[in-house]
Amino acid sequence: MSGRFLFPADFVWGAATSAYQIEGSPLADGAGPSIWQRFAHTPGMMANGDHGDVACDHYRRYRDDVKLMQALGLTSYRFSINWSRVLPEGTGRINPAGLDFYSRLVDTLLEHGIAPNATLFHWDLPAALDDRGGWLNRDSAHWFAEYAEIMFKALDDRVPMWSTLNEPWVVTDGGYLHGTVAPGHRNTYEAPIAAHNLMRASGAAIQAYRAVGRQQIGVVFNIEPKYPASDRNEDVAAAARAHAYMNQQFADPALLGSYPPQLRECFGDAWPAFPASDFGLTRQKVDFVGVNYYTRAVVRHDPVQHPLRASPVRQPNRTYTETGWEVYEQGLVDTLTWFKDRYGDLPLYVTENGAAFYDPPVVEGDLLEDPLRVDYFRRHLKAVHAAMRAGVNVKGYYAWSLLDNLEWSLGFAKRFGLYHVDFATQKRTPKASARFYADVIASDGACLAP
Ligand code: GBH
Q1: Segment 82-116, tens digit of pLDDT
Q2: Which candidate in 167, 190, 224, 329 is catalytic?
Q3: Bridge partners for 116 per DSSP
Q4: Where are the domains of the chain?
Q5: Is the complex ipTM more than 0.85?
Q6: Is 400 near ligand 1, meaning CB less than 6 Å away?
Q7: What general EC class does the enzyme of this chain belong to (predicted)?
Q8: What's the 294 CA to ligand 1 centre distance in angstroms?
Q9: What is the position in ligand 1's atom list of the atom closest to the CA of 323?
């Protein structure tokens, strides 16, 4: 048995989910509606008319789902909290039943030896706050800090790892620039404002944590390396713009206290003059950073694409997943090393990594074979190890996702789960990738060696 792919004994092995994608019962027990509740019930927004009213029914089946986590051997579980369960109007009045759901989930995880990793915001803003301008309102930083402090006071004695935001880029690019996710706006002027307020909110929540929290807090970014399609100057510059927009627009204000210059160049008039004093708020000491990695992009200059003047180029003879994303594990090595080079030697977690592929029909008693997903996980776990050998401080890995779930506006058809979910019966069936991941965890990665 080669020791080449052995991970340290304290390496965190996890799986991730998010509230609106799995919980169902979005209005149960006094919860208020979120913008995803609203968006998913707006005709035309969701593939196949899908919505999160039931999803994986995790709100009622969470005890069974924790057993599935235990069967994998997970040492940590990353979930998100639906803000409007706890604060139905987003601020002010607390709904004790909503708080209690997360308290029971946390206790159940701990009873099964699984460390809770809680994300405060995975895109489901309370609808009542959207009615007050949502992330375009500068008060959003205070609203978020108020909610965060309530959660810290309720759960920090039992939750060792917190994140403020999941993937703010998706919120602003999809939610404010292109309208593909909630709240569904298409406005070049709004996107940078929402982005800035999200990072002010993250900073305000971290400040609140330093006053009342005792464990670890960080923030989670989606990072996707951008490689130029050729070595021509215009393609190199296009890749740099795409990189600044997706990978630096959020991490730079959080970790360096500034924005990369390409953003002003792309947004022009729509780039606001942000008060210099805001960067003291955005830049807070974090205990770790979470990196969500799925794919890379190869980018060319494309003058008609507003605002980036850049387009992705499809690569011939490569494997693409069912969401159209290239399988490219070297991008994870490059991402982790880039992060360390730019932002310093912070503890990093891969907080999401996974792939949608079509799975064969479930046959009772047979293992559900998903060889492309197994291959995806194998390649990316080796890539994590390669980054660690190159000196990056990666402390854990979370597979996306524990369960097939609501893939946002793409609906239930795109399946990322280690466990297959039959959405008609709620039956969970392990895929071969679940067995593979359990073997990786049980062997500390030794089974990855050829
Ligand atoms: C994550 O977002 C989310 O956190 C999670 O909720 C979601 O279910 C999961 O991933 C799977 O989607 O090739 O030009 O289309 C993913 C963020 C950003 C990753 C866009 C892929 C592809 C760009 N994604 N990116 S493109």
Answers
A1: 999 999 999 999 999 999 999 999 999 999 999 99
A2: 167
A3: 77
A4: 12-448
A5: yes
A6: yes
A7: hydrolase
A8: 7
A9: 15
